[in-house]
């Protein structure tokens, strides 16, 4: 623990003096933090826009394969995309629950209903595996860059890919995503699952022929073990959730897709119509990639906030202290235990933290009990069912409008008068694959 002497050069008491917010984090209180390092424009660009465009081009190239291999994507032409829907009843509910009227419009981005793996991980995970498969095929098979990727859905290619393996460490959903697409292509896939991973996620993977290795420790350990085992095998590709650029790029593509969706729905985003986006955060890749893409597309007109469980505020801790992956929630005495399995991460990605440290507007934390209250409310008001992690961003608009730090942010960027024209998007990151009996259990958690 950080309490006494430590590698961070300060004791916890010294850190608390420097960052009063830490006291609330340590005692697992809900907080709303605005980022003092946030810069509305002229940000450094560690990842070029052309790289995100290249990722989108690759996904377009693979669409014929996806459409063939996963018939549920035929409707969208092999694109893995989710709807953006208005949730006015939930907006009214939130106003009552938090005792603050929420002006503007509230939307839910339904990554919970993304095809193939039912979570935001279908973006990054599938992209990284497709890119890897393409690289192998171009290097070893008779085919060209312009190959119609539909040929991948053949026994010839499955036999070829079966000579290679893919490994990943996960709290559940990334494993699901990599496992499903990897096994479909013919790869041998090993998923290293942390103790938080739900039994049904492991069973689903095993039913697809994926090897699942279970750990009694948390996410960081599962990733570390996976990385170590993969290092000894040159035919194995390790999907590194803590450091992968390809995962990040796959997530970032969401921004271009959202831009088109907003245009189709005639939702303006400009200097008089601000856009606020609330993203559940685990290790940071998913919300970080989406934020990175959104800031490139909408610049100072979009405001991105992360949401984490009170017991696992790893990204908030890394950003607020500037220590990124050099500090973990365990270092400040938190246990990293939460029902929000997708967010049960104690140490953030340093790569992501540094990429977004001037782009992110802020972050908030939420208690597990509140996740279940909101899960039930969304089901009642909008007939939409998400997994607990996916509700983390839901209190975001109310917190922004109600907390001292939120109001100060609105004032600082001259947004107060524009709030009636604002759009709020809560990123619903997962849930459509949750088995019915488990969802019923979630829905009955709160009387
Ligand atoms: C993984 C996950 C997140 C967060 O993504 P990270 O890349 O880990 O930050 C959010 N919600 C759900 C449901 C997830 O599975």
Provide tags for this entry:
globular, 2 domains, four-stranded parallel beta sheet, single chain, Rossmann fold, binds pyridoxal-5'-phosphate, 18 helices, seven-stranded mixed beta sheet, 447 residues, alpha/beta
Describe this structure in words.
The protein is an alpha/beta fold. It has two domains: 280 residues, Rossmann fold (3-Layer(aba) Sandwich), CATH 3.40.50; 129 residues, Rossmann fold (3-Layer(aba) Sandwich), CATH 3.40.50. The chain has 18 helices and eleven strands. The protein has a seven-stranded mixed beta sheet, sandwiched between helices. Strands 6-5-4-7 form a four-stranded parallel beta sheet, with helices on both faces. Strand 8, helix 12 and strand 9 form a beta-alpha-beta unit. The model has no long low-confidence stretch (mean pLDDT 94). The structure holds pyridoxal-5'-phosphate (PLP). Pyridoxal-5'-phosphate binds next to helix 12. The site of pyridoxal-5'-phosphate has 19 residues, from helix 12. Its cofactor is pyridoxal 5'-phosphate. GO terms for molecular function: D-serine ammonia-lyase activity; hydro-lyase activity; pyridoxal phosphate binding. Belongs to the serine/threonine dehydratase family. DsdA subfamily.
């Amino acid at each position: 623990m950080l309490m006494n002497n430590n590698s961070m050069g300060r004791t916890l008491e010294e850190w608390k003096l420097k960052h009063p917010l830490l006291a609330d984090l340590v005692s697992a209180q809900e907080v709303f933090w605005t980022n003092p390092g946030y810069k509305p424009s002229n940000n450094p660009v560690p990842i070029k826009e052309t790289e995100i465009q290249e990722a989108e081009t690759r996904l377009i190239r693979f669409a014929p394969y996806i459409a063939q291999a996963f018939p549920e994507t035929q409707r969208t032409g092999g694109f893995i995309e989710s709807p953006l829907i208005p949730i006015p009843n939930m907006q009214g509910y939130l106003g009552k629950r938090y005792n603050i009227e929420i002006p503007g419009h509230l939307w839910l981005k339904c990554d919970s209903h993304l095809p193939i793996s039912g979570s935001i991980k279908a973006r990054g995970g599938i992209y990284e595996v497709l890119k890897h498969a393409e690289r192998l095929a171009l290097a070893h098979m008779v085919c060209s860059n312009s190959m119609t990727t539909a040929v991948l859905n053949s026994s010839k290619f499955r036999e070829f890919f079966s000579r290679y393996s893919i490994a990943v460490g996960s709290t559940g959903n990334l494993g699901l995503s990599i496992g499903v697409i990897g096994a479909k292509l013919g790869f041998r896939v090993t998923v290293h699952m942390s103790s938080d991973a739900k039994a049904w996620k492991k069973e689903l993977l095993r039913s697809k022929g994926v090897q699942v290795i279970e750990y009694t420790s948390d996410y960081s350990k599962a990733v570390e073990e996976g990385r170590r085992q993969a290092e000894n095998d040159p035919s194995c590709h390790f999907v590194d959730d803590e450091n992968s650029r390809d995962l990040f790029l796959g997530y970032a593509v969401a921004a271009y897709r959202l831009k088109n969706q907003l245009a189709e729905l005639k939702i303006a985003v400009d200097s008089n119509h601000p856009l606020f986006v609330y993203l559940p955060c685990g290790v940071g890749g998913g919300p970080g990639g989406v934020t990175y893409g959104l800031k490139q597309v909408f610049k100072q007109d979009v405001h991105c906030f992360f949401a984490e469980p009170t017991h696992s505020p790893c990204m908030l801790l890394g950003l607020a202290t500037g220590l990124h992956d050099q500090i973990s929630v365990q270092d400040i005495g938190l246990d990293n235990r939460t029902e929000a399995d997708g967010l049960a991460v104690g140490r953030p990605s340093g790569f992501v933290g540094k990429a977004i440290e001037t782009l992110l507007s802020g972050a908030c934390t939420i208690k597990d009990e509140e996740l279940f209250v909101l899960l039930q409310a969304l089901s009642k008001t909008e007939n939409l069912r998400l997994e607990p992690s996916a509700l983390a961003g839901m209190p975001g608009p109310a917190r922004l409008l109600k907390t001292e730090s939120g109001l100060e942010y609105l004032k600082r960027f001259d947004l107060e008068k524009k709030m009636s024209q604002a759009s709020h998007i809560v990123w619903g990151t997962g849930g459509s694959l949750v088995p019915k009996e488990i969802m019923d259990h979630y829905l009955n958690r709160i009387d």
